[in-house]
Prior knowledge:
Blueprint: E1 2-10, E2 16-21, E3 29-33, E4 38-45, E5 52-58, H1 65-79, E6 88-92, E7 98-99, H2 107-112, H3 117-136, E8 139-149, E9 155-156, H4 159-162, H5 167-170, E10 180-188, E11 193-199, H6 217-230, E12 242-246, E13 253-254, E14 259-262, E15 284-287, H7 293-314, E16 317-319, E17 323-331, E18 336-338, E19 344-346, E20 352-353, E21 359-360, E22 363-364, H8 378-388, H9 393-399, E23 404-406, E24 421-429, E25 432-436, E26 440-441, H10 443-459, E27 466-470, E28 479-480, H11 483-488, H12 491-494, H13 502-518, E29 559-561, E30 566-568, E31 572-579, H14 582-586, E32 595-601, E33 606-612, E34 618-624, E35 630-637, E36 645-658, E37 664-672, E38 676-679
Amino acid sequence: NYLLGVGRADCTGPVAQVPLMGYANPDQVGGGLLTHLYSRAFIVADLDDSQRVVFVSADIGMVSQRVRLEVLQKLKSKYGDRYRQDNVILSGTHTHSGPGGYFQYTLFWITSKGLIRPSLNAVVNGIVKSIDIAHENMKRGRLFINRGTVENSQINRSPFSYLENPASERSRYSSNTDKEMVMLKMVDEDGEELGLISWFAVHPVSMNNTNHLVNSDNVGYASYLFEQEKNKGMLPGEGSFVAAFASSNLGDVSPNTRGPSCINTGESCDNPQSTCLIGGATMCRAKGPGNDMFESTRIIGQNIYLKAKELYEKASQEITGPVSSAHQWVNMSDVSVELNATHTVKTCKPALGHSFAAGTIDGGGAFNFTQGSVEGDPFWDQIRDQLLGEPSSETIACHKPKPILFSTGEMTRPHPWHPDIVDVQMAAIGSLAIVAVPGEFTTMSGRRLREAVKSEFDSHGTPRMNVVIAGLCNVYTHYITTYEEYQAQRYEAASTIYGPHTLSAYIQLYRGLARAIATETSQDLPRGPEPPLFKIGNLTLLPSLSAERAPVNKTFGDVLQEVRQQYRVGEVAEVTFVGANPRNSAENATEHNFLMVERYSNTSGTWHGVQNDASWDTRFYWTKGSLGRSNVTIEWHIPHGTELGIYRIRYFGHYKKTLSIIRTITVPFEGSSSAFEITIP
């Protein structure tokens, strides 16, 4: 038995004008909302409450060091030493459709227009609030673990790199991706269901880089389906049951199961360079199983949900035993790794290779970069040398065979471009070990890490540990490939920023954490060098929020394009309003709801909400016009099983109004469509 608490809180942030984080495409800027983003928190404590572990999975691209440090500061001021860097794990789901701008290292400012306070605050406050809710609802309960195989939901997007791994190692595995889902089920002592955490390795990139609607992608859809089922009769985002679908070693794993083809010719581009004869690498794209990205997201998300549901219902293996955690800060640009008795190698100062700029088959890069380049390009190298300075010979030698595009570890203006100080962290709950990794481990890297940790536990008298990797934790350090994959220098290898021995360094470090947990000596681990918290104001290229106008003879919330009078199930009801910048709402309220679909009840003569903006069936689009004007279009994709009857769509917003030269205020408003009828299909 344990003390358990679960909590969920909104962490969506601004849904307009902020670049989305993930594809590093500066044109991919938020322009509305498909579904909210949530932070989901789980607290597990010993019955005597001597030890606690917090696991948070947030619907964001990755946890940045800035987010983590600010969350830990807030937790310390609220709870003293109860929640600390060693027992709080923060993991990102890796959706590529959430707002960016919550980073302190310069590299991430380039594509996300700097440090965006409203974005950072939404993530930090959402995470803290979800932990608060879990903290306030602790009760006695039980944990169960189950595992199973998820089919038809992933492909390896760098299969040529995977093939660089030794044949003897590959022959031990039936697939070039990890298909196993590990699921942790939580119930209270009366058997009431509290929630679950699922770990499964897949990139949440079913929504591609042409998408402008903020959403949580395939794993977010799985959470939505599970929570909707368990929180019956509640609107999305409401209810006490919390279902987290967390990331794992997804580095080379894509959900776009139809594989890569050239968008111009339709021919396959499944080659070592992922390049097309006509148009090069930018034309090579992987497609999901659906007809469009929305359908692909649902198909993959539903596959994951259905497996989790089956594992949840059948989970019978109980987790028992002590709760513990171990953590160190490590300077990853300077780790000595003992490969064997005679050989010691070192990690490098961070640097990105040329193939980093090529992107992947899930979202290509710019210009004419291709994956798998082990030569530099004199044209780009010259531009780099003039703008950013050339890499030192030491860094070039350390990273071989990577041709360095950005020597980020040697770039310090206005702040360092990449982290040196990285968190390594592990938590154990009975026979479950959660390995919190600061980036994206590839399939084989993850297998080696899990195996090393397991054998360390075995050799210190703690056999049969269930070792699970939680990805995108605590600080973002891009990718971690195996030494062999590194030689091929595809995107993942070019983005292995601490050089060819990065994985070996992590394996050595996590072995140390496992040993400390198994021998109960975590408190004796050296803390390591504390990471910096840079003093940064609101440093951003985001346009400032200025006064807005409605068209002549119209006011905010007026309908510009009305709904039809009748729709059938399966059709799309659509209405356009005189709108205002959604950022006004995000900066006014933490959990703003932009829309409601309401049904008219004849018996009571009142309207009742049936869907909100967190529903996957509604889409909220914001379009900026000129002269301070903008429009909002709301779509409701009427799902099968919708009750027939009379409906309407309402819109809630805020506009900026000028009172005087120095003072503007934010004014709330709302609008509503006409009533419409839903009839038999």
